[in-house]
Amino acid sequence: MRHIISVLMENEPGALARIVGLFAQRNYNIESLNVAPTEDPTLSRLTLTTIGEDRKVEQITKQLNKLVDIVKVVDLTEGAHVERELMLVKVKASGSQREEVKRTTDIFRGQIVDLTGSIYTVQLAGDSGKLDAFLQAVGSVTIVEVVRTGVSGIARGEKVLSL
Amino acid sequence: MEHLSGAEMVVRSLADEGVEYIYGYPGGALLHVYDAIFRQDAVTHILVRHEQAATHMADGYARASGKPGVVLVTSGPGATNTITGIATAYMDSIPMVVLSGQVPSDFIGTDMFQETDMVGISRPIVKHSFLVKRAEDIPATIKKAFHIAQTGRPGPVVIDIPKDITNPGEKFEYSYPKKVKMRSYNPATRGHSGQIRKALELLYAAKRPIVYSGGGVVIGGASEQLTELTKSLNFPITNTLMGLGGFPGSDPRFLGMLGMHGSYPANLAMHHADVILAVGVRFDDRVTNGIGKFCPSAKVIHIDIDPASISKNILADIPIVGPVDSVLKDMLKLIKEDKRAPDVDAIANWWKQVEEWRSSKGVFPYDAGDGVVIKPQKAIEVLYEVTKDMDTYITSDVGQHQMFASQYYKFDKPRRWINSGGLGTMGFGFPAANGVKLHYPDAQVACVTGEGSIQMNIQELSTCMQYDLPVKIINLNNRVLGMVRQWQEMQYEGRFSHSYMDSLPDFKKLVESYGHVGMRVEKLEDLKPAMEAAFAMKDRLVFMDIAVDASEHVYPMHIKDGSMRDMWLSKTERT
Fold first, then answer.
1. Inter-residue contact B122 to B51 (CB < 8 Å)
2. Does the distance separating the beta carbons of A13 and B184 come in below 8 Å?
3. What angle do CA B147, B149, B154 make, to 5 degrees?
4. Which residues, in sequence order, are bridge partners of residue B171?
5. Burial B55-78 (b: 16+ CB within 10 A, else e)
6. Within a 13 Å sphere around the CA of A105, how many CA atoms are in the beta-carbon half?
7. Is the separation of the CB atoms in A45 and A6 below 8 Å?
8. Is the pTM of this model over 0.90?
9. Which helix H or strand E contains B347, and what residues bound it?
10. B239, B417 in Cβ contact below 8 A?
11. A14 Cβ under 8 Å from any chain B Cβ
12. Which residues, including other chains, have CB under 8 Å from residue A30's CB and lie 6 or more apart?
């Protein structure tokens, strides 16, 4: 099963390397990963998705918790949560294809953020499934480049991950 | 306020931390620090002959004393040579602080002479590491390193120090912090009372219980509580390789070590148990044998300071996260309040069964041979006889001799059996013995080793000469890599690929050239008198080169992927 693990960690050099190293060292997989400072500049928030059975994911969270730089760890998929991913897609579109790409982008509530005579750059946010669906939907045109941020997530309601 | 240079701060911080000895080897990146060492006498530096030996010396000291061992090495090769020693300490949860020199800050990343990314290289095998950026941060970083190394589940911590911040020309205000607080590091201090209660109910109801305790009891200072609890419940007990001495080895409740080379009664009692009280252990593969067949009828209570050790290999029915000494204290207190005990009849029946196993095969049986050739098992038994009434520490290297020592030597106290259990580091035993001897000069310190292992750090004979460290080296010399050979005989139809040593030195002459005493023993009748003579020479390092039977295997031996009870008992007999 896919899990979204959210980590609050000291904004220190080497902290990210410790986390990534842990995954490599213990043969855990990372599907996606993103990291950035929080409202408190001494803290960073890292979100990663991994696939594994529950016991393995439990080991992952326990091992992460052991790292000295890590303040808190939560498996967001254990509760209600919101997840989003941002994607930038460059597609080659000319003639009637241009209208079709525009229409598909609107349907997916995306935005065209840059264009040339033959290229549209589309920005799209949503859960990973929606982004996959968009790529399928524009499948008839040539996709030139795809950049995805990986999943970010946050728990629904009152629950927060903070100090 | 006092003003010190970065180099002086390194040394003063160690002194203020209460460090007596540091083990190390100088080099370019550390010259400022070594100059600061020269100009003080609060901390004594011990010069080893190879940085790996410095880490094992510090490790041996840490295992014997419970305090962190401290290592000082230069950048590049100095740092990389410590890796095996750091990994050894990491696997066995030993507190250690390793200070490594680094090239000047501005040159980091330029592939400068003797530059290596020490923080990067050591990352998977340290509890934590620091690269110090400013001289002012040195005292607080050292304080933190010692705090992390010895609290929670202990482990090694690396501090990498660029040369420029130790510059003797720049002085800074010095004060050593009294306390350390880290918001991201808070190890458990007590076990959960509800879980402890649940565990007790299971223990009271047990019909076929066993206590399985490990290195966590030794490191966590919980032997006293474990011994009291086991005796009050009257349960059989077994120890892991790392846990030996956590419960008195000569007590009748002790069934011997368990696991791959564990005793027949210990492995059988584990297999048939209905309740396993696992204390400070990690269900290592060398204990469990095939995970799927592990102790089919047992409920498991697992006490450990490290939550990640619980339910990692074997699912715990009642997990208790906390320091083992505090959890066992809570248990003892509750048992006294409850005025309850396990079912006396059931326990008596269980003991009857266990005693039957113990007497039918013996604990660690072996063929005594012709009485002339020295069996390696016999050599350990004689070592035990000669030293049991002395204040003795036994260290070991890795291989058959290590298993024989763990089987035939009875450890009645914790911290007296010092070996590399997790990483299995050949070359560990001798420098570890030196670290112990330095701190306990009045104790007898013996290293049980083999002709393979001893040659992996034999240069330390020179360190012993310099600092007058009269340890005893018990070299069980069978002229082959015994454990490798045992596996090759059992699993590779006797194709002894590279497990034979055909160019051994004359160990007696070798140690004599370092000014030590060498002995060669070839006949059983000479063994005991020679050993008595060796231990009587209290102020001399004695190297006993003992010719032992190369055909001996270590038994019992788990049959691969089987259950705890599936064992070879000799070359021809299996369960």
1. no
2. no
3. 120
4. B5
5. bbbbbbbbbbbbbbbbbbbbbbeb
6. 23
7. yes
8. yes
9. helix B344-361
10. no
11. yes
12. A20, A23, A48, A49, A50
Exposure on the CB side of residue B227, measured as CA atoms within 13 A:
18
CA pair distance B134, B136, nearest whole angstrom: 5
The Cα A45–Cα A39 span in angstroms is: 10
Residue A90: CB atoms within 10 A of its CB come to: 17
- DSSP letter string, B319-338: EEES-HHHHHHHHHHHHHHH
Stated length of chain B = 575
Q: Is A94 on the interface with B (CB under 8 A)?
A: no
Of B119, B184, B306, the CB nearest to A10: B184
B352 is catalytic: no
For each of chain B's 575 residues, which pLDDT tens digit applies?
899 999 999 999 999 999 999 999 999 999 999 999 999 999 999 999 999 999 999 999 999 999 999 999 999 999 999 999 999 999 999 999 999 999 999 999 999 999 999 999 999 999 999 999 999 999 999 999 999 999 999 999 999 999 999 999 999 999 999 999 999 999 999 999 999 999 999 999 999 999 999 999 999 999 999 999 999 999 999 999 999 999 999 999 999 999 999 999 999 999 999 999 999 999 999 999 999 999 999 999 999 999 999 999 999 999 999 999 999 999 999 999 999 999 999 999 999 999 999 998 878 989 999 999 999 999 999 999 999 999 999 999 999 999 999 999 999 999 999 999 999 999 999 999 999 999 999 999 999 999 999 999 999 999 999 999 999 999 999 999 999 999 999 999 999 999 998 899 999 999 999 999 999 999 999 999 999 999 999 999 999 999 999 999 999 999 999 999 999 999 999 98
Examine the residue annotation and report whether B118 is marked as an active-site residue of this protein: no
Distance CA B559, CA B312 (A): 23
Closest Cβ opposite residue B308 in set A14, A66, A70: A66
Angle, CA of B203, B231 and B197, to the nearest 5°:
30
User: Which two three-digit tokens encode residue B234?
Assistant: 């009257």
Residues in chain A: 163
Q: CA-CA distance, B441 to B399, in Å (whole number)? A: 28
B474 secondary structure, DSSP code: E
Take residue B414 and report the two structure tokens written for it.
């914790």
The verdict on whether B107 is a catalytic residue reads: no
Cα(B568)–Cα(B264) distance, integer angstroms: 10
Residue pair B475/B450 in contact (Cβ under 8 Å)? The answer is yes
Q: Judge whether B563 and B290 are in contact, CB under 8 Å.
A: yes
Distance (Å, rounded) from C-alpha B343 to C-alpha B361?
Answer: 28
Question: Which residue spans within B76-147 are E strands per DSSP?
Answer: 96-102, 128-131
**Cα B127 vs. chain centroid, distance in angstroms?**
17
Beta carbons within 10 angstroms of residue B79's beta carbon: 29
Using alpha carbons, list the distances in angstroms from residue B142 to B186, B383, B412, B501: 18, 41, 35, 44
Which residues in chain A have their CB less than 8 angstroms from residue B183's CB? 71, 163
**Structure tokens of A4?**
């979204």
DSSP letter at B68 equals P
What is the 3-state secondary structure of B276-308? EEEECCCCCHHHHCCHHHCCCCCEEEEEECCHH
Pick the closest to residue B72 from B118, B4, B125, B135 (CA basis). B118
